[in-house]
Design a protein that fits this description.
It is built from three helices and seven strands. It is α+β, with helices and mostly antiparallel strands. The chain has one domain.
Amino acid sequence: APVPKRHKCDHWTPCPPGNYAYRILSGGGKDKMAKICFEDELCVTDSTDHSGEMMTFIRNAPTGTLLLMATHDDGSTLLKKDARKLIEELGSKEIMNIKFRSSWVFITAKGFKLPNDIQKEKINHSDQKLNRYRGWPAEIQIDGCVPRNLI
């Protein structure tokens, strides 16, 4: 059988013309870091000042910016309350529910509205009975296509 054609951000099918491809994957375990793919570019940075740098980035992002976010370890303690409040203001329904080692992914827009049919957020809490990795929940992901004409 022929090898399946690879599409942007490892989608099974290509995004329609005029759309951006994205995939947000939370981390899982010590060795599986969070990954954010946008238009086939890996766009993840790690920092020691999660809250301060994130808030500065969000505030300085111009209107018309897509924001893609993911946690690895540990959003419940490394994201301070003021950072979580800013993310909640961007439309997150789950950011205030993050617990120790929860996996969380989120896509939002600054200054415009994403289509209702796009899954914008997903969370998976650590549960010692269900965790895939010792002490860590399974990674989660959201992916899809965003129309370019929204931006």
